[in-house]
């Protein structure tokens, strides 16, 4: 079961949601060693963030573990919140054990949508086609070039730019072509977001965790 307690992790980050990732017993030393992953909150954990914000390692004497019918993991978790006298400082003492929702359908949907948004961000930086050539979706540079082209046309000034394509070939683009390039980029970005919206609908309509897990960004 996860632990709820607001603490400042060793790396200075404020975290509130903690998961026991693993535990081990050293019979010779008479100790148990617990490893904990910490997140800013439950939502960050359930959405499948790539990395925890902080990691902690604690040691307890074996005598601190009270086994029960719930099993060893439950005993480790109880020690995590109930044992003040650890051989290393126990930041989680006094925390509250809460129900683990990571296996629920909603948690699976949250994780899937988080993954889709990450894939969408990558796709936005991909390549798109304009006038038979492949261009990198450099939004900042293309928007800047479009603005210069618009200003040039407004002032009746001839304007061209040499543009490098994704295959490292180059093209001379005049003001009209630069504006058209910007429009092509806009259509590309709109298409990327349309894919994301369609996948969001699929995620929301999925009725099982297996169905959710089968949803991913198209190759």
TrEMBL record:
This is DUF4376 domain-containing protein. The lineage of its organism: Bacteria, Pseudomonadati, Pseudomonadota, Betaproteobacteria, Burkholderiales. InterPro entries: DUF4376. It comes from the Bacteria. Pfam families: DUF4376. Residues 107-214 form the DUF4376 domain.
């Amino acid at each position: 079961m996860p632990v709820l307690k607001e603490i400042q992790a060793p790396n200075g980050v404020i975290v509130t949601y903690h998961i026991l990732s693993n535990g081990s017993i050293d019979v010779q030393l008479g100790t148990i060693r617990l490893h904990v992953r910490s997140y800013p909150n439950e939502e960050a954990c359930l959405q499948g963030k790539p990395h925890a914000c902080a990691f902690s390692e604690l040691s307890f004497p074996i005598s601190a573990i009270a086994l029960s019918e719930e099993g060893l993991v439950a005993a480790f978790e109880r020690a995590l919140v109930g044992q003040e006298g650890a051989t290393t400082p126990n930041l989680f003492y006094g925390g509250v054990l809460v129900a683990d929702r990571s296996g629920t359908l909603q948690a699976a949907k949250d994780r899937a949508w988080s993954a889709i948004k990450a894939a969408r961000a990558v796709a936005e930086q991909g390549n798109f086609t304009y006038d038979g050539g492949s261009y990198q979706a450099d939004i900042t540079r293309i928007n800047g070039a479009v603005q210069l082209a618009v200003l040039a046309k407004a002032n009746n000034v001839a304007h061209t730019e040499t543009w490098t394509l994704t295959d490292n070939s180059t093209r001379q683009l005049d003001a009209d072509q630069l504006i058209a390039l910007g429009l092509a980029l806009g259509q590309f970005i709109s298409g990327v977001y349309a894919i994301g919206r369609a996948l969001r609908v699929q995620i929301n309509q999925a009725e099982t965790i297996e169905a959710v897990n089968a949803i991913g960004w198209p190759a």
